[in-house]
């Protein structure tokens, strides 16, 4: 089947393989060396995040709702903080030094407070009075989410393996490798004070090498996708640097960035913004580059007579359709992640021009635009490389034994003669009114119901 990309692609000519090895291997070695030089040493810097509050799992055994006391008068227009829920909750501590003990907590109230019922598994925090360490209060922090998330992860992995089989298992391994690189190199490296842009580019390249070759195998097709992804990543980084400098973005475009600056003042938030654009673009780029490389390979297998230019044009048409849908995906993904911010901006009374050019919204616009430009550049870059690699050496190659026979091309002169020859009298009549064919025509057409029109 032409759409089955899991079958192995035909081996590239030896000269092409040597060129790919000479190109890809130095890039991989340079990426590994850069990762070794930038690898954080001595652990991440400790931040002053406050005292560590003990947290214990517990199970709700009783909920008593009570009417809330009258609220004190507040000035008109003051936002309401609580939800008006009062009462007590009895919780059995399931682990820790007080395991098995029943504790009483107030009903959770306030923005984002969980709603609890009997039988819910929750997380308890014990707050000790600084003036009297022997006095402590218990509160419900949140629900326990470990068990549902484990089951969700099991269903997720089972679905991928059931549909993708060995390729799905390789995809799960690639996903684990991506998280390992992010958690052990990218995030600690940025936290240690390294350049966020440099760490993001090296980390993204490392993820790309590991995931693509692990998922799709060490083939010429995968090498083309790697080169296309790496070139597009570099272009995305350059465009992001120019765009953020031209729009004077500082990186303080979100509450999370502002909070991070208070706990880790030495983090370059502008560089962190660039790093986020690079990491965010990688997931879409490898999808496009792998698809384009596979499309060129399948087109060449379906019609070995296609030239490089024909392969490029045909695969580019597929890439245009892919880009048209992916651009909308990028914008909606960023909009979904920033939905509370967008909702807050819609309530702003300022003119729309001021809202669009504000730091909060301009950051998301620049992020989407730069990622889209890098994505568009990935299509011609990867398609051109794939067309060159796939068509190399095909003129001297012997077609495989199971290759379908080429369709015979009609003689143009015979076709023109057939079209220009006068039709016999009665040819415009219905079939049932036409004269019977001569005996020699009947000999040429064994089937009685075949057409008796002039043969091409």
Automatic annotation (TrEMBL):
Q: Does the keyword Cytoplasm apply?
A: no
The answer to whether UniProt assigns keyword Oxidoreductase to this entry is no
Q: Where is this region: Disordered?
A: 93-112, 397-456
Low complexity: compositionally biased ranges? 397-408
Pfam families per record: YibE_F
Q: Which UniProt keywords apply?
A: Membrane, Transmembrane, Transmembrane helix
Q: Where are the transmembrane segments?
A: 20-39, 146-163, 170-191, 197-214, 226-249, 269-285, 323-345, 365-389
* Name this protein carries in UniProt: YibE/F family protein
Species for this entry: Micromonospora parva
* Origin organism lineage: Bacteria, Bacillati, Actinomycetota, Actinomycetes, Micromonosporales
